[in-house]
């Protein structure tokens, strides 16, 4: 009986492995259909290249799907197709957390052709700072292009390569194409190293990538460092039970408002913030600058928006309305119900794109509210700032008393406001945008450059505090 069980297990494993081409093709086709039926891009008259990649990219990915042998191959095919749209809001993520493997070190590229070891385990510490020359006869630039940039980097945003480059040595457990032997310049001496890959859990992997990329993601909160107040907002992704964290912070801002208004230096710190719900940023502005200023900001921007009309999108909006209400975002909930109702009418009329006629569609009155802050106020960004973080940056940069400092932000396409679905294989989830901004302040895949750039080196709290105090001189 034991032998029969082993035999059945082998048959099952083999059959499952043989299904990777089918799984890849099924999910690839489902992604294409989801985009075709629900994303604004295929019916957007201002973006004909979107449809070109929808079809041409699919044909190329379809050929690769037939060759998939492992889950690593499966994921590469899907990511390469999705990444080709150059739309940061088209997203793939695992249906459940999965362990990855790494060789005990991660590298970072400087954007100018040099890749160095920037994070190591204790056993690999001798590699710290060494230059990666190549692996298995392939030079570093080609490795990065094949294994990282083609599958995760928006090539319209050059500095995104720096952020993504640490993923070169973080791979799926069954990746048969992972590097085996790599060459390094260690203290000026060429050294060949056989890579010893070991498991790493997702949370540790994410933490290591951030460290390797030089990203310092603060804890949510308010603190004073060496005379400088930091209002740290590492994410706006607060839903359900987690919403109480940002709600408590906003309450604390109200309690400390007088001290902040009188402070010599205040920094709104969005290092590591890659988005979430922009409503939280709006509430922060209203709490510290007042409801009138928040309203003026809202009406000062051209918010012409077209929504992609579909049954799936309508239902998703109604579900989001429930989640927003549960998080205490009453206005956001009402807004989504209103859009869903309008979408239903448009769907009945056979409309593909629906103009949101209730949104401001032209520049409103200029901001004339006096600043409540007596000292210097800064918005601190890094390369991660995207989505709702960019919405927050839109507002902060339009307040006369705020100076943008730090590193350039990331960038968004004009497509935004996401929903998601499970793919047929159950391996991945796919997320896409519901609407297209016509005249957004930060245009398609255009990032914000700070008024004052970070001087270089690790952007640690104490170093930032010292730097901020020099900016007033």
From TrEMBL:
Cleaved signal peptide residues: 1-17
Transmembrane feature ranges: none
UniProt key word Signal: yes
SUPFAM superfamilies per UniProt: ClpP/crotonase (SSF52096)
Keywords: Signal
Domain Tail specific protease positions: 231-411
Alphabetical list of InterPro entries matching this protein: ClpP/crotonase-like_dom_sf (IPR029045), Tail-specific_protease (IPR005151)
Gene3D superfamilies: 2-enoyl-CoA Hydratase, Chain A, domain 1
Protein name as it appears in the record: Tail specific protease domain-containing protein
């Amino acid at each position: 009986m034991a032998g029969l069980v082993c035999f059945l297990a082998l048959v099952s494993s083999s059959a499952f492995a043989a299904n990777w081409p089918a799984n890849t093709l099924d999910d690839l086709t489902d992604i294409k259909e989801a985009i075709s039926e629900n994303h604004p891009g295929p019916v957007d008259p201002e973006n004909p290249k979107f449809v070109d990649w929808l079809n041409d990219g699919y044909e190329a990915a379809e050929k690769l799907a037939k060759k998939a042998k492992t889950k690593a191959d499966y994921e590469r095919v899907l990511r390469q197709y999705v990444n080709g749209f150059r739309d940061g809001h088209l997203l793939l993520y695992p249906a459940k957390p999965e362990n990855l493997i790494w060789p005990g070190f991660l590298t970072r590229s400087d954007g100018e052709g040099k890749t160095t070891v920037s994070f190591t385990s204790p056993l690999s510490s001798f590699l710290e700072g060494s230059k990666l020359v190549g692996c298995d006869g392939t030079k570093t630039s080609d490795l990065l292009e094949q294994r990282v940039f083609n599958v995760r980097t928006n090539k319209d945003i050059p500095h995104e390569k720096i952020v993504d480059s640490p993923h070169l040595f973080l791979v799926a457990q069954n990746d048969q194409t992972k590097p085996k032997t790599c060459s390094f310049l260690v203290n000026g001496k060429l050294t060949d190293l056989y890579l010893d890959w070991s498991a790493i859990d997702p949370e540790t992997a994410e933490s290591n990538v951030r460290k390797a990329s030089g990203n310092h993601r603060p804890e949510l909160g308010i603190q004073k460092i060496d005379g400088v107040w930091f209002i740290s907002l590492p994410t706006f992704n607060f839903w359900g039970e987690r919403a109480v964290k940002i709600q408590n912070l906003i309450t604390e801002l109200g309690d400390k408002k007088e001290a902040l208004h009188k402070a010599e230096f205040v920094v709104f710190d969005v290092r590591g913030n890659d988005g979430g719900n922009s409503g939280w940023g709006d509430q922060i502005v209203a709490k510290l600058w007042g409801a009138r200023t928040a309203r003026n900001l809202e009406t000062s921007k051209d918010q012409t928006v077209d929504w992609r009309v579909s049954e799936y999108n309508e239902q998703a909006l109604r579900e989001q309305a429930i989640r927003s209400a549960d998080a205490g975002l009453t206005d956001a909930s009402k807004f989504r119900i209103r859009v869903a109702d309008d979408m239903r009418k448009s769907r009945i009329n056979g409309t593909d794109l629906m103009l949101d006629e209730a949104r401001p569609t032209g520049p409103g009155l200029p901001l004339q509210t006096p600043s409540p802050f007596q000292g210097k106020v800064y918005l601190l960004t890094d390369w991660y700032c995207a989505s709702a973080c960019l919405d927050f940056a839109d507002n902060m940069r339009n307040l006369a008393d705020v100076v943008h400092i730090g590193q350039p932000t990331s960038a968004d396409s004009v497509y935004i406001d996401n929903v998601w679905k499970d793919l047929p294989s159950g391996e991945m989830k796919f997320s896409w945008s519901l609407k297209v901004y016509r005249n957004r302040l930060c245009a398609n895949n255009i990032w914000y450059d700070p008024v004052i750039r970070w001087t270089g080196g690790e952007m640690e709290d104490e170093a930032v505090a010292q730097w901020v105090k020099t900016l007033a001189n």
